[in-house]
Amino acid sequence: MPTEAGPQLSWNLLRDAEAVLEYHFMINALLAGSAVAVLAGLIGWVMILRREAFAGHTLSMMAFPGASAAALAGVPAAWGYLSFCTAGALAIGRLGDGAHGSWREEAAGVGVVQALALGLGFLFVSLYGGVLGDLEGLLFGNLLGVSDGEVLTLAVVAVVVLGALAAIARPLLLSSVDPETARARGLPVRGLSAGFLVLLGLAVAATSQVTGPLLVFALLVMPAAGAQALTSRPAASIVATVAIGLASVWVGLGLSYFSVYPPGFYIAAVSFGFYLLARVAAAIGRRPRLAHGTPALAEAA
Amino acid sequence: MLGQEYMRNALLAGSFIALACGVCGWFVVLRGQVFAGDALGHVAFPGALAAAAAGVDERVGLFAATVAAGGAIAALGRGAVVGRGGRAAGVEPADDTTIGVLFTVILALGVLFLTRFSLGSGGAAGVEAARTLFGSIFGLGAGEALLAAILGAVVLLAVAAIGRPLLFASVAPEVAGARGVPTRLLGLAFLALLGVVAAEASQAVGALLLLGLLTGPAAAAHRLRPGAGGSVVLAGGLALAAMWGGLVLAYAIPSLPPSTAVIAISTVIYLATRLSR
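^ inputs. structure came back:
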């Protein structure tokens, strides 16, 4: 086919990889994608354990009011992302521990926060009156246009957030799997919960301007859900989470290089493929899953 | 204000959608399925795009996608209400993880269809066709408003028909199951109904309004009145109040979008019930 328009995938995978790595923007995309995969994977692992996927989704939606408020106020978009994600995390944490303490109320509180955020975003957009970039760019970001500075910023944020997560990891894990025991031992369960939500918000804010909020959510949920279905041992499932996340980003970026579809689509699709594989493997192996492994986790913490 | 035709249409469609959302939302909050309701609202656009890609009427795709997604969530998830931390020792993953995975897949499909259209020749027409489906509440025609009202009334009747066993199955799933109440089937039927509400609401008044009307008034009603019967009616009434108040407010302040006004009032109602206790 001499009339091909773009690069074609051949069977020589080594040459394909060389072709991908020839371009600086692809290397930046790989670096940024890897940083996001590790950061979102590890934060997502705790998020899935705590069953806070709805809160994570709501925080990734904060990008919409954040970006539109920043455009309206004429400040850098990063400020908008950061302030709305942090405010959203604090609001979810505040509404979550109601007097009833029932988790259904918590879900309703998260829903109210999200609805209000989207309503505000809609208001800002209509006050701004302009167009806020294309829909696709807003949803799935532009991983192929990441600058050197953004890669560095992402790496710094990843190190800081993961460092903070590591610092509170043990009490956080205990209060996640067994809040009663944690409370009895005098751990600040509510403070830990709010602290984790703020970390989740920071991670989402830092990554969603590069990768788009939807891709962040995909990398938060899929690798962790797949890994926790696969094995019940915490250490093994954390390693599996990072491995699945990195593999999804690399394979997805590689495929998108040879295709017309955006990388966000491929990364989401590949990570879903890994999730399905993990569920199938778990169903075949019938090994005990993480939910059964909670005593081991509690001991570890 | 009532002399304006767009305002009459908005009030007609908005009232029935608000009632349906308030009453369904009461069960959504009771069953802890807020995330599911949120996901259904996001299915509408990819569904309409998929229908356009297949050459089917977008409206069919919209309803088919949301009802199918409701069924998928009911079938894949555990369906029953499971407390956080407490009864965590299940074999299946938690509902919200399943919904999160499904959510991502749906949105990825949406991007796939969107890219397909923007690449194909004449594909922009498909995107436009899907996009025009998602109106603003102030832009409804008389026929659309009537259709929204009829669908809202049908949903209300359906919820009334399955209300009692659904309540039983939501509050005490084990007991209900032991007494022969088909809890799984009821869960499926409820999420399918919620799919109809999501499709109609996102098409007529925008997906934005759906979540606000589903959660705020219902959560406030649960707080104000712990019982069943009166609480459901209260949820519907609060949703109606938020809708009417929002429409009037948006009419009075032209720069304020109606969706934002409705959501703001429903949020204020919920926060007021939280502060009062």
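Residues 50 and 176 of chain A are 6 Å apart (CA to CA). Residues 1-5, 98-103, 291-296 of chain A have pLDDT under 50 and may be disordered.
thumbs up if we can close this ticket
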